[in-house]
Write a structure and sequence with these properties.
This protein is α+β, with helices and mostly antiparallel strands. It contains 17 helices and 20 strands. Helix content is about 35%, strand content about 25%. A hairpin with a 2-residue loop joins strand 4 and strand 5.
C-alpha cells in the first residue's frame, strides 16, 4: 500500500513539475505569490538535512520564460506536449486553470537517499486555487496526505514522511543550512529551476548500498554539497553549478589546444588535464578501504600510467561502422618513452595471461600511413587497439583511421563552424579544468545511418533534431569548483 501511495505522490510530483512547462506556451502564470528572485521559499519548510531539493519557478513575463517558450516552439511536439499535460490535469480546463492549481513555485524535497526505490519525498506547492489542488489530490488513487502551512501545501505518500519533514524543519530548515547556501549562493538568481544535493547524503547512500567506491570518492573530496541552476536563453538551455568540496585535490586550469589537431568530423571531444593529484588521492583513499582486489589493481596500473597523462589530454569520437571510432590523444613530455611504457605493460599482460591471470593479448608492429604503430589485440574480449607517437603526442585508437586522421590534410575541429558556435554560445573560457563537446546534430544523423533508431517512435527522432550541441566545462572560482553546461537548440 505504501508503495502505491508513493507512486501516486511521485506521479503528482512529475505532473506538477511538468505543469510549469505550460508557462512556456502561455507566457503567463500566477504572480501574486512569487518569491524574491533566486529564492526557493519552500526551502524554509523542510529540514536542514534534506538530501536533495528541486525548485522550479514560473515568473510571468520574465526573459527566462519568454526564452523557454521560444525554445519549446522549436520542437515539433512542443505545443502538443503542453496540451497533453493540460488535458491530463484539468480535462476541459484552460491553461489558466492549471497554472492556478500549481502556482508559481513547485518544490520537491527528498528526505534521504538510502532507499533504492521510492525515497521518502515531499512535494511543496503554493497554489492560487487551493480548492482546485485539493480536488486533484482527493482524486488520486491511492490518496496522498497533505498539510497546509503558511499557504503552502506539503504533500507526501504517508503521514510518517510528512511528520518527518515538518518536525525536522521545526529544529532547523534547509534555507538556513550552510551547505545549501554554499551550493547555491554564488549561482545565478534568475533561473527557471535549481537543484541542491547534500554531499553527506550521497556518501551515506553509498555506504548504505555497500558502494565502497562512491563512499571513498565522497570522503576523498569531503563533498559537502552540489548546486545547480538552469537558465533558458535564446540559443538554448544553460546550467551553472558548483561543487563544494573543501578537501578535494586541486585541479589546475589549462588552455585547450588539442582541438586544433583533432579532425573536424569528431562528434564528441573530451578535454582533460593531468590526473596525477586525483589518482594519487584515490589510491590513498581506496588503499585503506575494503575495495576489491581488481579495483586496487586497476588503480595501481593507473599510477604506472600517470607519466603518460602528464600533459593536456583529449578523447575524440568519430562516426564509424559498425561501431564508433574512439581515439585518445595524450601529451606526455616524451612520447617515445610513453610508447615504451605501453609496450612494457603489454608485455607484462602477456606474461600474466600465460600464467592464467589475465586476458589473452597479442601485439605486433603495424604501419599506418607512414607512422610506426603497434597493434594490440585483447583476444578474449574481441578488442583491438592501435597506439603510436604522432606529432609530439601519443595516440591510442580503436581504428587505424583514428591515428591516420591526426596527420591527414583535412579540416580541424577548432575551425568547425558548429564547434565554434557551441563554444562561443557556452561562453567557454580560455582556461578550464576540462570540458566536453558533443555534436548532437551529426550524432543523431550518424545514429540514423547505423540503424540505431530502429523501432523508435519516429516522433521521438524528429524531436531530437532541434538539438545541436552540448558543451560542459569545469572551472575554479574563488577556490570553489564550478561547472557549466550549454545545450544548443535550433
Amino acid at each position: 500500500m505504501i508503495g502505491m501511495q508513493r507512486r501516486a505522490v511521485l506521479h503528482l510530483t512529475a505532473a506538477a513539475l511538468a505543469l510549469l512547462a505550460v508557462a512556456f506556451v502561455a507566457g503567463c502564470g500566477s504572480g501574486g505569490n512569487g518569491a524574491a528572485s533566486g529564492e526557493a521559499e519552500g526551502a524554509r519548510l523542510v529540514p536542514a538535512d534534506t538530501a536533495a531539493f528541486i525548485s522550479v519557478r514560473a515568473v510571468p513575463g520574465s526573459s527566462q520564460w519568454q526564452s523557454a517558450q521560444a525554445l519549446l516552439d522549436r520542437f515539433p511536439s512542443g505545443a502538443t506536449a503542453i496540451q497533453s499535460i493540460i488535458d491530463r490535469i484539468a480535462p476541459g480546463g484552460s491553461t489558466a486553470d492549471v497554472e492556478a492549481i500549481f502556482g508559481d513555485e513547485v518544490d520537491v524535497a527528498v528526505l534521504d537517499l538510502s532507499s533504492k526505490n521510492d525515497p521518502p519525498a515531499v512535494l511543496l506547492n503554493r497554489p492560487d486555487d487551493p480548492a482546485g489542488l485539493e480536488n486533484l489530490l482527493a482524486a488520486a488513487d491511492p490518496r496522498p496526505v497533505w498539510r497546509v502551512q503558511d499557504g503552502w501545501y506539503l504533500i507526501a505518500d504517508s503521514r510518517a514522511t510528512l511528520d518527518r519533514a515538518v518536525s525536522g524543519a521545526d529544529k532547523a530548515t534547509l534555507a538556513g543550512s550552510d551547505d545549501y547556501r554554499a551550493a547555491l549562493g554564488d549561482l545565478p538568481a534568475d533561473g527557471i529551476a535549481s537543484l541542491y544535493v547534500s554531499g553527506k547524503a550521497l556518501v551515506a547512500a553509498g555506504a548504505h548500498e555497500g558502494t565502497s567506491i562512491l563512499g571513498a570518492l565522497g570522503e576523498l573530496a569531503d563533498l559537502s554539497s552540489v548546486g545547480a541552476v538552469a537558465l533558458a536563453e535564446p540559443q538554448g538551455v544553460r546550467v551553472e553549478g558548483s561543487l563544494v568540496a573543501p578537501s578535494a585535490p586541486e585541479t589546475a586550469p589549462f588552455e585547450t589546444t588539442l582541438a586544433s589537431l583533432v579532425p573536424a568530423d569528431a562528434i564528441a571531444f573530451v578535454s582533460f588535464g593531468d590526473p596525477k593529484a586525483i589518482v594519487e588521492r584515490v589510491l590513498e583513499q581506496v588503499g585503506a578501504s575494503d575495495a576489491s582486489a581488481p579495483v586496487k589493481l586497476a588503480l595501481t596500473v593507473a599510477q604506472e600510467l600517470l607519466p603518460v597523462f602528464e600533459g593536456e589530454n583529449a578523447l575524440f569520437v568519430r562516426s564509424g561502422k559498425p561501431d564508433p571510432e574512439m581515439t585518445l590523444l595524450l601529451s606526455p613530455s616524451d612520447p617515445s618513452a610513453a610508447v615504451s611504457t605501453l609496450d612494457t605493460l603489454a608485455g607484462l599482460a602477456k606474461i600474466a595471461a600465460l600464467a592464467g591471470q589475465g586476458t589473452n593479448i597479442a601485439s605486433s608492429p603495424v604501419d599506418i600511413d607512414g607512422i610506426a604503430a603497434t597493434k594490440l589485440e585483447l583476444k578474449d574480449r574481441g578488442v583491438t587497439l592501435y597506439y603510436a607517437a604522432v606529432a609530439d603526442h601519443l595516440a591510442v585508437s580503436t581504428a587505424t583511421t583514428g591515428i591516420a586522421s591526426l596527420v591527414a590534410t583535412t579540416p580541424r575541429l577548432a575551425d568547425d563552424l558548429r564547434f565554434v558556435e557551441a563554444t562561443t554560445a557556452a561562453g567557454l573560457p580560455k582556461e578550464t579544468t576540462g570540458f566536453v563537446y558533443l555534436d548532437l546534430h551529426d550524432g543523431v544523423t550518424a545514429a540514423e545511418d547505423l540503424g540505431r533508431f530502429t523501432g523508435v517512435d519516429p516522433e521521438v527522432v524528429e524531436n531530437l533534431r532541434p538539438l545541436q550541441y552540448l558543451v560542459v566545462s569545469g572551472g575554479m572560482a574563488s577556490g570553489a569548483r564550478t561547472f557549466s553546461g550549454f545545450l544548443g537548440i535550433r
